[in-house]
Queue: 2 jobs
Job 1
Amino acid sequence: MLKYIIRRIVQAVPMLIIISIICFTLMQLAPYDAVDVMTTPNMTKQTVALIKAKYGLDKPAYIQYFYWIKGILKGEFGYSIVTHQSIAKDLAARIPATIAVVLPAYITALLIAFILGLISGLKKDKWADKLIDGFCSAGISIPTFWLAMMIIFIFGYKLRLFPILGMHTIGMENSPADFFRHFIMPFTVLTIAFLPELVRYIRSSTISQLSLDYIVVQKAYGANSSQILYNHVLKNVLLPVVTIIGMALPMLVTGAFITETIFGWPGVGPYFVKAIQGFDYPVVMAVMLLSSGLVIIGNLLSDILYCVIDPRIREMR
Amino acid sequence: MNNKRNIIKTIAIIVTFLLMISGCANKSIKGKDTGKAKPDTFIYGIDGDPGNAVNVITTGDRYGLMEIKAVYSPLYMYNGANNIVYFLAESMTPSPDYLSYTAKLRKDVKWQDGQAFTADDVVFTYDQMLKESNGGWARGQLIFDGKPVKVEKIDDYTVKFTLPKISMNAIENLGNIFIMPKHIYEGETDIANSPKNAEPVGTGAYKLKEYKAGEYVKFEKNDNYFLGAPKIANVVFRIIGDANTANLALQSGEIDALAITPADVDKYKNNSKISIIPYDEGRVGYLAFNMTSKKVQNKDLRQGIAYALNRPEIINASYVSEKYSLPAYSFLPRKANFYTEDVDKHDFDTAKAKELLSKASANGIKLKLAYTANNVTQQKQAAVIQQDLKAAGVDVELSGVDGTALYQKLSKGQSDADMYLGGYIMGIDPDTFNSLFVTGDPSNFMHYSNPEVDKLFAQGRVEKDPAKRKSIYEQIQKIIIDDAAFYPITENKRILAIDSDIDGIKDAGLVPIYTFEDMSKLYFK
């Protein structure tokens, strides 16, 4: 098993390198120079040349690439063109805020989806299934921003149940109760947004398990449906869930762009959206690199987990 | 049987869970109507991030300047010939020959770190502003006919400004500059990017307390403020990117003030808790050409585009009514000295537009129009402009971008946009507008260059005879409009929606850019 895990890790490395090269190339193709961040129009040509030399920007592109990678490995993503602030610092301030809302929402969505998906799968084509499936269809087709606006309007504005803005009331940054009140609305929106696809995934997984031969065999042995469910189906439905959890890893950084922007939640979302509007290439690339890196790492993790849970996988290789 | 019980069990779990969520929410809500602590905090919603790196030399955007206004003080604010408000200076007196001006300073002013404020700080600030490598925003207005003003200390509380030549606009040009502490910034080589900018030390009514990227800038009152301690203990500029959310937050009382668009005014019609105060900023909203773009070099083409635009329609779409916006014809606002409407107004005329465009052999040309993406007003203007120009046979590609980024790119001549929407708030005297149009000035984002205009601006600045100045500036207005690189659209008001519980607005004074001239005068009823 260890051999398999090591092999998977080794396979992931070239992918990460290729992604970093793609990001770097795109940044080079952008019509701006990293040196623009550090210079003002009034500087003399000599000053600009000095700054370029200091940061290695006068060197050929492949050497600059190594400088860039070296910086990233040290946690240094460069500077924003628009605000001149360090991207690493900005991200360090924002990623925790994003995780604080995305992670609970995802876990909640997963738990609810598990229950609803199982019910729906077991009661295929019955009223319960139709109801849940109808909810999923509606959920998939409702745009998140619309849902967010409606929830703000009803619960924040009309009913005055929750505050509308941001993560804290000014002056109450250390109050967990205050955080919780700010947290409820974006959390709900995200949970509802994550839910439908997870439900459908678990539903179809349940249905395919139920159609397998071993169920027929169990039935022939006289096992009742709850025994079949708890002893066999549940475990086998859980298995593919490991895969989607791994895939969900990048969402911790990029999962809530629109929702965060609407709620003024100080996460990566508004930062990234603003960077795109402002053609702030270094920021856009840093977030892209981070999230694509997480996709690969997430896949790697789910592969490894899968192999730990289900030994057949590694024997197949 | 068993099966059914399981289902009931699961449903019970879900219901409990949901109840738990809503229960928690309800419990924490009770006893509090809104999410803010009143009445010692004034929260002003803004739609951009001012950043925490502000300094009086290079910061030039609205929110950065608002931050500066809270923390620093100028010698005096010039709001018109009969409306000078003194801050750090007690008086500013010209010599009989108008070649020098003497500022008497207040003696009771302390920096926020306890050091005494003296003439050294004033001299230091003006010297830094004049230093070319600093890229100071007011440098242009301190240069008279190619030579800088000389600033010297007479004694600890007297500063003398000596002009190289007489300038009738000197009193305005020398004012509105915020004074920085010499003891903090002395020896700093790169003021624009100095780490000291994150911890400003000023003489203003408020001290910067905390900046949270993307969230807010927090200020607390400066009890030693020389005009008396502020009445409200804390001021917060809260960053809200989404305009809909911001409006709801104001209505729900989470923020106390917000600049709103005319289209949003109706939302507050029946709301007695919010007062709507439109006020004049002397802002001119315009469409300008990026003259570094090869496509728009032809004057006939630019004039053709000007005739193709339906100004009243653009204004109606973006500002709803004349109550909030008047049409603009000159680069000057109406309250400016020597304003004239006697220019080619380029009144909407599609036939003439088509004729000029075909003369410029610009049929089927494609142009890119940049505007600030989260600015609803500009979004609407851009849409109407696109329609108008389509009728005249010009294809317009709209490109909504971040405002700060747009001007940064324009200032370096890197923008791929052929035209852009913008607006500015300058001064009273037409001379202060020269930085927008004079060849090579960092604020000349259009990269407009007309030697005739350069010459006239230089003349107007040193001309003593008001009648001659008038004719010079009228000529400039005619030439700039005729060149059609600059198409003025509207002179709009800013509409402040503010909590009715806040009083002292009149004393605080509504002024361009900063909103309040002196926030220390605001108080809760």
Note: DSSP finds 14 helices and no strands in chain A.
Job 2
Amino acid sequence: MSMCVGKSAIAMVLLVTTSVTQARTDVLGQVDYELTAYAEDATYGPDAGLKNSVALRGEVYQDWDDGYQSITFKPFYRWDENDEERTHGDIRELIWHKVGLGYELKAGIGKVFWGVTESAHLVDIINQTDLVESIDGEQKLGQPMIQLLLERDWGNLDLFVLPYQRERTLPGQDGRLSGGLAYDDTQYESDQEQSHVAVAGRYYTYIDQLEYAFSVFHGTSREPVLGVSQLSGNVVPYYPLINQLGLEVQYLDEGWAWKLESIYRDGMPEYSIEQFGQRLAVLQTPSGLQVADDEAYWSSVAGFEYTQVGVFDSRIDLGWVAEHLYDSRQAKASLSAFEHDVLLGTRWSFNDAEESTLLVGMLYDYEYQDYGLSLEGSTRLDNRLSVDVEARVFAPSSQNPQFGLRDDDFIEITLQYYF
Amino acid sequence: MKTVLLLTLSFFMAAGALAHTPQEKGLAIAEEADKRGEGYQDSQVKLRMVLIDNNGDESPRQMRVKTLEGAAEEGDKSLMIFDTPRDQKGVAMLTYTHKAKPDDQWLYLPALKRVKKISSRNKSGPFVGSEFAFEDISSQEVEKYDYKYLRDETVDGKKMFVVERDPKDKYSGYTRQVAWIDQEEYRVWKIDFYDRKNDLLKTLENKDFKQYLDQYWRPSLSVMQNHQTGKATRLEYEAYEFKVGLDERAFTKNSLKRAR
């Protein structure tokens, strides 16, 4: 009897040992085929019609040390039929990760997301936006970093050293959503240009249904200020050194999710140089670069999402999203800012076997009295195949920086195959 | 003979010799069932969830669940990791069960690296398109229900307690549940779920129980049948592992981002 117990105890120990120390290896791939239909010729650039694009994504993961250490590699490449700027590759991640007791350490190229709101991601600043990938700014380039995370009773503290700045990808003149803009060489405030080392930190915690975070960033801005060259007439992307304080708050109260993101930033040149009947932040003249004064500003997104579970006696969850965007610079705000806008949206979760979702939104600028519409849907065709649909309508007024996109309305279908 | 008598006596003590009203006896049964499941420390299991529609068409998905037993007054913590369908790979859900207040729940979406807190208001909603609601898959803490012992019943030669339990949470999708619990091992074999109109909505059946570490019983198969839609969901469990040495590090909000 005791023999039996002994044996099973040994068997148990063996079982435990193997299950914990088994290293894990993952090799995964994904191909996206993207078909986009444009109804109108662009104001500047390509004609109406169907455009093709293909993207390849890979993921290789290996861990050891009972899974407490790992390396992840995520390469990415896109080929685009029209826009050579959009035909591009990137290392999304190549990072070593160690998990200790109460701390985590990462080194390499990584990706980090900060934020809670839908319509804009103000606080999110670690990674550069891969703008040619998606106009919503949610696709990011890999960022070289060393990250130390402290996970303690008093909350979480994330500390970053970011030794290199990536340039934002911008659509080429032959591509859509470019506004027909041509770009000159990028300019930096820092003499070290892209090698200027940025530092950042974020503290976050939660109390019951309240989650909040404070963040700081010092370094080269991820958002370029767009200036003009007197010499070529082209756009000059300029990256200033900035300081940013960020706040994120989310409070869940039954069906309500209340959200707030706010930043306070200094170092961004204001759009205050008058030239060519336009307001510029940066002007390249024969004598050199002229940069407008900067003034500290703050910007915020605040709103809620209210979810009705099982609406109309069905399985469908229906969410209502309302957010207000504000920028204290108002007319002097940078081109990509939302100075005075309201997002009204509705989110449908069908809760079917395919987990279909649909998000429809309208961003309304109440001062320019113009709007943009967006629709994003997704469903699954089978275990290895899913499909996304995205559509956007741009109706900018002539004062709106997005005026160049007025003929770029599109519908896009993306098939995603996983292997 | 004396031993048998003692055993019988202690059994009745546990099951409700002290309980006089149906409410007290129902609670005593739930507490005893809970007590028998205590001390497992941690567990992990791979499972296959099969969604079956009215035509009998099946769509499968695979996931893993890791659970950490709550110390003293805390509820269990669980981490659910999705492997297939492939568009869901890497999606992970972390739940902190609480006895007295609503659970905390976070969902991780790997494509955006975004951790989203889920409102407990969603608890009655379907879990990943299945016939299981969020509340059906979360840890069943004793404190979350009011109980009422209904009757004894013999099913397939097994003596069962039939106990009604009423969710205390006003956002539960159920007015009441009726559970069949065997009197020998206190395993839940079947639960009838009644919707908010008090109509029979679903039946859960647990089958092929296996015992682990000479103590913990787990079903190898669970089937949830929706009587109102004709759809069903099957959960097929692979072997459970207990006391694998999982620690708190695998159950933090940050751990979601590296869950594999």
Note: The mean pLDDT of chain B is 88.
